[in-house]
Each structure stands twice: as C-alpha cells, then as structure tokens.
Amino acid sequence: MALEQSWRWYGPHDPISLQQIRQVGATGIVNALHQIPYGIIWTVDAIMERKRMIEAEGFRWTVVESLPVHENIKKRKGNYKELIENYKISIRNLGACGIDTICYNFMPILDWSRTDVDVPFYDGSRTTQFDARIVAAFDLFVLQRPGTEARYTDAEIRSAQEYFDRLDRQQKDGLLRMVVLGLPGSGETLTLEELKAALREYDDVGDAVLRENLYQFLREVTPAAEEAGVLLAIHPDDPPRPLLGLPRVVSNKKDIAQLLGAYDSPSNGLTLCTGSLGSGYANDVVDITRSFAHRINFIHLRNVKRNPDGDFIEDNHLDGDVDMYGVMKELLIEQQRRIEAGIPHHRMPMRPDHGHLMLDDMNKKYYPGYSLYGRMRGLAELRGLEMGILRSMK
Ligand code: DNO
Q1: Which residue of 14, 64, 111, 353 sits with most ligand 1 atoms within 8 Å of its CB, as the best mutation to test the pocket?
Q2: Exposed site from 28, 326, 370, 392, fewest CB < 10 Å?
Q3: Could you give the domains of the chain?
Q4: pLDDT for 161-174, tens place per residue?
C-alpha cells in the first residue's frame, strides 16, 4: 500500500485551490488554522468548518501542520501553564473532530531559516539555500550581542567579515529580512529590536533547559493526545544546528532518541523531514528513518545538497545528498509492518515538501517553497519511486 499522499494547503488564502490540488495526485490535505493566534484554543466549530471545506472537495484532512507551540511554553515562562492547558484542549478538540495527526516544532523564535529564498538553480528554476557565513555575519555585525564572538572560530569570523564588508547599505538592511523569514502562513516578520528582545529572553534558556522544557511539555500533553486518539509528530530543527546562539534540541539521531524516550508512546512521534535532517552533514537520513520507523507519524520528503560548514541548497526531490530510494524503502517496509500488526493508524501520511519555483509559477507570488509546479514535480517523482519499490517488494 502506498503512503498517504498529501499536500500542504494554507487555507482559503492559498493561491492554489483545493480544486487544483485534486489534479496533483494527492488524496490528503495538510492544513492549519493560521488565522488563530498562537496559544489560543482551536474550537470544535472552527476545526469543523475547515474540515467540511476540505472534505467537500473529496479530501481527508490528514495532518494539522502546525499546532504552534507558544514561545512561553518553550521557555516555561509567563502564562505557560495556561498555554499548555490550551494546547491540550486543542488536541482534544482535534481528536473529537476525527483529526488524528498533529505536527509541531520546538525551535525557539525562528521556524525554518534560509539566507536566500530565491536562488537561481542550474536548470533555470529558483530554489532556497542556507549559507552559514551569512548568518554569522548577521549575528556578529548586525545583532552585535555581547559574547557572540565566542561562538565562532577565528576562521568563521574572518570569512563573515569579508562577506559583510562587501555589502552595500541596502544589502545590509536586507540581511534581517533574509534571516528572519516570516513565519509560515502568517507573513509575520520581526523588527531588529523585537528580534533582540526575543533573543534576550533565551539568555537563560540554554540547551539543557530547552531540552528539559520539551520533555516536560511532552509528558504533559502526550497523555491528552493518547486519550484523544491523536498522534503528535515533532518537526526537526531546520537547519539542524544552533542559530544566533539559540539552543536547538531536535537536530540529530541522538536528540530524537532522547525525546522519543522521554515519553514512550506512539502518540509521541516524529515528523521525518528528510530535508531538515538531511542538511546536517553528519546525519544519515536512511539510518534515522530505519531506527525510528515505528515512531514516524508524518513524513516530509525533499532533498538537499550540503557541505560540512552547514551550508545547503534545496535540490530536486530525487537528487542531492539524501538517498530518497533508501528512505522510501524503509518507510514502505514500516507501513507494511503496521498493516501486518493490525495497527489502526497504519497509513503513513507524507507530503512533498517544498519545490522549486519553475515554469508558469515564476511570476506568481508564493510562500517560498510552496509553489504548485515544483511540488507537483516532487510528488510525481516520489509516487513513481514509491510504486517501483512497492512492486519489487512483493
Ligand atoms: C517549512 C515547514 C515548517 C514546519 C514547521 C512545523 O516548510 O516544514 O515550517 O511546518 O516547522 O511546525
């Protein structure tokens, strides 16, 4: 049986309609109530309204991406207790509406980050990339927070300086926009002062604290998910490395093993994002897939070309450094295992993650990575790969 083929739809404001998505081959929709501010309860009415909209076009709402975790929960500051209670209520409400998988992340302040979201690719399409030197330049010469230099080697500082010195005024201003890409769906961006204030809040939340806050959160919310018949799926850090001195605790095999061990339940699971994990030079994504297959609740498939400095560029879905054949095979073996074991949630939802801007999409406005043709190409390639592997498994 094929994985459950889904497509991320940003809701009624998405430039791609549900009617169009029917033609790409997906049967499931990945969606969130982006209009609801972080921390506010998702009511049954609001969920049902969206669910009916999705089902009216013949889709299943396969996954919520994301039910956002408020910053105060990550820091365990302010009204975090109330926010955790709200989170549990939203989980219960989603479960009551028959939505069984929730993706979320625990990245402080910044969700996925890139240094350029409009990079010319060799075939004429446009893609996104991450250049660690640019982030270092921003950190060292724009933010200029005390103690920053200690986090970089002399060689990194020199290279960041060379890069920064070549920029004109306008390019320097553009750095902020580049690094602090608006949060998905909301179009929200932070000003420099807001970013500095947000970073200050993490001065006393280092790696060990954030880790413990995540595990504590999981111990608190997973029982609610279990009762509601909901599977949680944490999205790994993108990129899988500390940024601007902020801690990152879901970046590699060791982190994942630790967090899955913090609360041992199928409801405490993983979003296998091959692109995010794949951009870590030391990460072997096939091995990660095999090792945690039984706890993978959601799948993002995309590819990257990476280097040891932490730089990467988003490649086509079947090209790049992630062995997509190896990953797909492990996923299909796992789904087969679930079917044979009689597990009710045996169907594993996947979606093509990001795609290049190409063809007729070139002059349209999309959230970076979420255009039509690029993702359609990705899904088509992944479906072909999947079918070939499935046939050869019989
Ligand atoms: C980027 C996405 C992420 C993801 C969140 C999940 O394209 O994969 O923004 O939705 O990190 O919470």
Answers
A1: 111
A2: 392
A3: 6-110+204-393 (3.20.20.150), 131-177+185-200 (no CATH)
A4: 999 999 998 888 88
